[in-house]
Automatic annotation (TrEMBL):
The name this protein goes by in its record: Probable peptidoglycan glycosyltransferase FtsW
Coiled-coil region: none
Function: Peptidoglycan polymerase that is essential for cell division.
EC number: 2.4.99.28
GO molecular function: lipid-linked peptidoglycan transporter activity; peptidoglycan glycosyltransferase activity
Keywords: Cell cycle, Cell division, Cell shape, Glycosyltransferase, Membrane, Peptidoglycan synthesis, Transferase, Transmembrane, Transmembrane helix
InterPro entries assigned: FtsW/RodA (IPR001182)
Organism per entry: Falsibacillus pallidus
Predominant place of localization: membrane
One of the GO biological process terms: peptidoglycan biosynthetic process
Any Gene Ontology CC annotation: cell division site
Length: 403
């Protein structure tokens, strides 16, 4: 039995995850060595050592999540527990929150910082997947099957937005919408939800006008201005974006060589975080960028494929939700670095420096690997023995295929 389970794991998914994490660790060291010395007066491997500890801890959680049966997460006690814990974490920021980059989004524990909103992303995926898996028989009853999950999503997004962290709130909202669309809800109720969202926007408009100075602060509006014309503000708010362009352009096909970036020498602020892809492009050129894009693309597409093949609604929605989370974060980060979208401070999955981000992503990847294992196990062994395999759920035929 145990050997069959081990044989059922998708090792290509595991290998790509590990390769991206190790590549990210190398690039964090390369991108941060000068910043650590010049700005923090630390050793050049300061961020490297911290990220190494983050990765070791993350690998442990990844292994645990990949071995733990994902179907156990659907229990009311577990879902209720993580929902309460997530709401408590977000609420505690108003009391114990540490302000950094004009946002009260972190809780300081000794020398380390934890960002509760990062973990809320996975909570939303687990909660919505469990709710819609249980609500299949009445999913299209608006008051009973549609409204309650939407209220939870709205409350979570609101708590994150008021920190203020509109980037993370937007990501959580899009992840939730993706799961809702894939849940099998009929078009009539989807249209009702769209109208409900429009009504809430109209109702909230007076509040937005009253709080416009805080919501549309000078810093946030400057991000829009920089997005429209970064070179006009290259000595101010556009400094980081312009230097990112220079880094990307100077990399060429083969790059300047690992460790040979010029922009990380003080021209590109905090190059080991949101703008690490600019350093990858400068040092390793098109080949380095392609490695990251292909790795992220493989995980996202593989996750979607797993969701399509999974016969269990809960597992299917989990795979879709985790894949969408990685895809959305990657698109927003790469769009900000290349100037296609305004800057939001979203890290690049598996590559950027950050403890909360890599820990969340590792747990999510462990869950995805476990879902993939169950799919392959049922396909290889139950089908071969003639054991009944669960029928495909009608509610998820929108995106799943038979095999």
């Amino acid at each position: 039995m145990f050997k069959k389970i081990l044989k059922s794991y998708d090792y290509s998914l595991i290998v790509v995850y590990f390769l991206l994490c190790i590549f990210g660790l190398v690039m964090v060291y390369s991108a941060s060595m000068v910043w650590a010395v010049q700005q923090l007066h630390q050793e050049n491997d300061f961020f490297y050592n911290k990220q190494k500890i983050n990765l070791i801890l993350s690998f442990i959680f990844f292994i645990g999540a990949s071995l733990f049966p994902y179907k156990a997460y659907i229990s009311k006690k577990f879902i209720g527990g993580i929902v309460l814990l997530s709401l408590f974490g977000l609420g505690s920021l108003f009391v114990f929150g540490h302000i950094s980059n004009n946002a009260q989004s972190w809780i300081k524990l000794g020398t380390r910082m934890i960002q509760p909103a990062e973990f809320v992303k996975l909570t939303v995926i687990l909660y919505l997947s469990a709710v819609y898996a249980k609500k299949e028989s009445y999913i299209n009853k608006f008051n009973k099957g549609v409204v309650p999950p939407i209220v939870f999503l709205f409350v979570v997004c609101l708590l994150v937005a008021v920190q203020p962290d509109f980037g993370t709130a937007g990501i959580i909202f899009v992840i939730g919408v993706t799961i809702i669309i894939c849940s099998g809800m009929n078009m009539k109720n989807l249209m009702k939800l769209a109208l409900l969202g429009l009504m809430l926007a109209v109702i909230a408009s007076p509040f937005v006008l009253v709080m416009k100075d805080k919501i549309f602060s000078k810093e946030r509006m400057s991000r829009i201005e920089v997005f429209l014309d970064p070179f006009q503000y290259e000595q101010g708010d556009g400094y980081q974006v312009v230097n990112s362009y220079i880094a990307i352009g100077s990399g060429g096909i083969t790059g300047q060589g690992l460790g040979q970036s010029v922009q990380k020498l003080g021209y590109l602020p905090e190059p080991h975080t949101d703008f690490i892809m600019a350093v990858v492009a400068e040092e390793l050129g098109v080949f380095g960028v392609a490695f990251v894009l292909l790795g992220l693309g493989f995980i996202v597409l593989k996750g979607i494929f797993i969701g399509m093949k999974c016969k269990d609604t809960f597992g299917s929605l989990l795979a879709i939700g985790i894949s969408s989370m990685i895809a959305i974060q990657s698109i927003i980060n790469l769009g900000g670095v290349s100037g296609f979208v305004p800057l939001t401070g979203v890290p690049l999955p598996f590559i950027s420096y950050g403890g909360s981000s890599i820990l969340l992503l590792s747990i999510a990847m462990g869950v995805l690997v476990n879902v993939a294992m169950f799919v392959r196990y049922e396909q290889k062994y139950k089908a071969n023995k003639g054991e009944p395999v669960p029928e495909q759920n009608k509610s998820t035929q929108l995106y799943r295929v038979k095999y």
